[in-house]
Amino acid sequence: MDLDVFVAAHQAQWDRLEQLLGRGRKLTGAEADELVSLYQRTATHLSLIQSSAPDPLLTGRLTQLVARARSTVTGTRRASWRDAARFFTAGFPAAVYRSRRWWIPAALLSTALGVLIGWWIATHPEVQAAVAAPEQLKQLTRPGGEYETYYSSHPAASFAAKVWTNNAQAAAVCLVLGAFLGLPVLWILFLNMANLGVGLGLMASAGRLDVFLGLILPHGLLELTAVFVAAGTGLRLGWTVVDPGPRTRRAALAEQGRAALGMAIGLAVVLFVSGLIEGFVTPSGLPTWARISIGVAAEAAFLAYVFVLGRRASHAGEAGDVEEADRTALLPTAA
Length: 335
What we know:
- The protein is mainly alpha-helical.
- The radius of gyration is 27 Å and the shape is elongated.
- The protein contains 13 helices and no strands.
- The chain has helices spanning 3-22, 29-52, 56-74, 81-98, 100-122, 125-131, 134-141, 146-149, 156-177, 183-205, 209-242, 249-281, 288-315.
């Protein structure tokens, strides 16, 4: 491409587009149609220049011009309660449902790893001795020991807030670090399952497995599910780096990144519920069966939310991404 000839041929169109943009909303119907047509042409010109004869100054000018034109053509839209309702009734559950092939295997394998670690510790006294001294183990596992008093060591409200903050940060880290080929996500999952397995094994070796499960299950079912969903989403984002599919890697990562951001918001709400259960239900005086029933009910409600509401929204075309008008325009690519 002869850049000078190309610029000479289309300069008048760019100047006309800039002139129309400078008039704001004071356009006739014919001028508005002309602006849309010039916007589309200029976007194509920008793509041709970027692929055939990149020039930093010209590319910068046209990029700014196309962005201004797109903002004028599509208009600005403020977030509303309608957007929040759409997100929680369609976008978020659909995103969780669509990523199920990632987080369900992550959940099953992680749970199996946690149980395996617990069994290994419970059946090998030498491993228990390597974890802590006998007196320390006794303090941890005895009636009224540290495992039991942990959940009532602080006022319920502040403890719930602390738990929610910590868990939300862990989920966000899984989502953010997933772009690094998912390797940090695997490490975070391993650490979580190792901590769970240690507690499981030590309490089982002390003959107090029922107490441990009565303390973990009320909040742990929903909490761990949220962590698994975050991990699965992070792993999916990491795989997108390796295999973006038919889209460009940039477009694929942008789509998955927007879905991951929405997932972080939705999971923060899920973990808030889990934190409330951990702060107010787990250390309460309710019978063990009642506390576990609350945890099972919360988990069942979330799974129904995902596999009923989310499945329906996904089949209707919802992908958990922002609305098309709010996405960055994809420029045509020159052959």
